[in-house]
Amino acid sequence: MKMPPLPDNVLDMPDYELGGLLLGWFIAVQADDLGIPFEQINQIPEHFAEQVRKRVLTIETDTVENFAVEKALHKAASGDFETAGRFIREHMISGGVSIVSMKFAPIGIKFTRGRKPNTVSPIRKAIAKLLKANSAIKNPEIWESMKHKSPRGWTACDNHLGKYFEGPENKNMNYERFCNVCSDERKKIKQ
Predict the structure, then answer these.
(1) Low-confidence winner among 37-46, 158-167, 171-180 (lowest mean pLDDT)
(2) Are 65 and 57 within 8 A, CB to CB?
(3) CA 24, CA 61: separation in Å to the nearest integer?
(4) Cβ burial, residue 76 (10 Å; 0-12/13-18/19+)
(5) Three-state SS across the chain?
(6) What is the predicted pLDDT for the residue at 153?
(7) What is the pLDDT of residues 107-127, one digit of tens each?
(8) 50, 64, 132, 145: most buried, per Cβ within 10 A?
């Protein structure tokens, strides 16, 4: 039988628990081959589990892809669940990364974060919208208006550090920059 997938939350588990789960999962798969259903994992005889654990210590793989799993199983069978969990977690993460890179590498898609170049920030858009509605509005009034209705992902802060907008991915805009953007947008409206 092929080993069923691990539960969805395994990457959230501590290394020690993940290492124990890996060994338990492997023992359950071996028991399933002998007729004990995988769903009845708690009914596996103790002596059978011990035999599988001892056999795991002698298993050797002949493929590079399975080497990390084999090493993690060896560590778990010898009682080092912490290391086993770390090995299997790193193997799972690197497998996910390689799958993603294999998918996108042939077509040359680059992974980028943030806005596309030469696009307008949400703060600038909101300022332009307010100035378009009322070109005589002053910077403190724009700030107050935006403080109560900030663009999505942005938070207006007014504390001991001063006035600033806190944005996604640590992109912040201080009050001085905010005033400069207001000035730029006023100039665009007058033109």
Answers:
(1) 37-46
(2) no
(3) 19
(4) buried
(5) CCCCCCCCCHHHCCHHHHHHHHHHHHHHHHHHHCCCCHHHHHHCCHHHHHHHHHHHCCCCCCCCCCHHHHHHHHHHHCCCHHHHHHHHHHHHHHHHHHHHHHHHHHHCCCCCCCCCCCCCCHHHHHHHHHHHHCCCCCHHHHHHHHHHCCCCCCEEEEECCEEEEECHHHCEEEHHHHHHHHHHHHHHHHC
(6) 83
(7) 554 555 566 667 778 888 999
(8) 145
When comparing pLDDT for 104 and 39, which is higher?
Answer: 39
Please tell me the distance from the alpha carbon of residue 182 to that of residue 165, in angstroms, as a whole number. 14
The token pair that represents 123 in the structure block: 């703060």
Give yes or no for residue 1 having a pLDDT over 50.
no
Tell me the C-alpha distance between 59 and 88, whole Å. 17
pLDDT at 77 over 80: yes
